[in-house]
Amino acid sequence: MRIGFFDSGIGGMTVLQQALRILPNEDYIYYADTLHVPYGEKQKEEVREYIFNAVDFMANQGIKALVIACNTATSIVVDDLRKKYNFPILGIEPAVKPAIQSCEGKQIKVLVLATNLTLREEKFHNLVKSIDHHDIVESIPLPGLVQLAESLEFREEKVVPYLKEKLSSFDLKQYGSIVLGCTHFPYFENSIKKIFTEDVNIISGSIGTAKNLKRILEARNQINDGTGDILFFNSSCKVENKETLSNYKKLLVMLDR
């Protein structure tokens, strides 16, 4: 049986790439809801419907576990998904806790970069409230990065000006840790580094999610000896177009550098 990965678009490949590193012999299904991307600027109930439709489709493929490789989807629906399905469902959330820990005892702050919907959700606010005891966490939505990623536009000359414009009101020297609170954002890590000081710590939740996936499969004795094969679906349509498949594989290679 395969492991399912779900995202609104290509962002979840940043999590899949981490899974491929530590579970290289598993086989995977990657579902990108390309008909409805981006999620972060839509209404919550609309997005919930898209997610349940996608997970229904993946469940019918016979997956043994599902990774919701999307911060927005995790924040609004992961608990309800777990009530409906009997296979393990893992989510991903902004890695605020390790970011705060890396800044403890220092006169520096944490900045969370995410989508509007993730930052509006009660799940995110409760997370910050439970661990940000010194009021050092700030946040900003950067929906343009999702749009750039989905357009396969990663050039720094396009990304850096957008970041400078959106962050122009921030004193960037104040921040010691930057949390990539959207799975699309690791594609732009090099551009983000150019905006902040050299010693800034950039953190995402991808590695932790992949490690947790391995622990769960080991505990259930479900580690497979597969080939690392990946089936790609765009909104329940199997991807067979050679150019699209080539682009998806290039993205995984790009992340592995």
Give a brief description.
The chain has 257 residues and is of the alpha/beta class.
User: End-to-end distance, in Å?
Assistant: 29 Å
CATH architecture of the largest domain: 3-Layer(aba) Sandwich
CATH topology of the largest domain: Rossmann fold
Q: What kind of sheet is the major sheet?
A: 6 strands, mixed
Structural class: alpha/beta
How helical, in percent, are the residues?
40-55%
State the total count of DSSP E strands.
10
Task: Tell me the name of the CATH class of the largest domain.
Answer: Alpha Beta
How confident overall, as mean pLDDT? 95
Helical stretch count?
11
Rg over alpha carbons: 18 Å
Organism: Oceanobacillus zhaokaii
EC number: 5.1.1.3
Family: Belongs to the aspartate/glutamate racemases family.
InterPro entries: Asp/Glu/hydantoin_racemase, Asp/Glu_race, Asp/Glu_racemase_AS_1, Glu_race
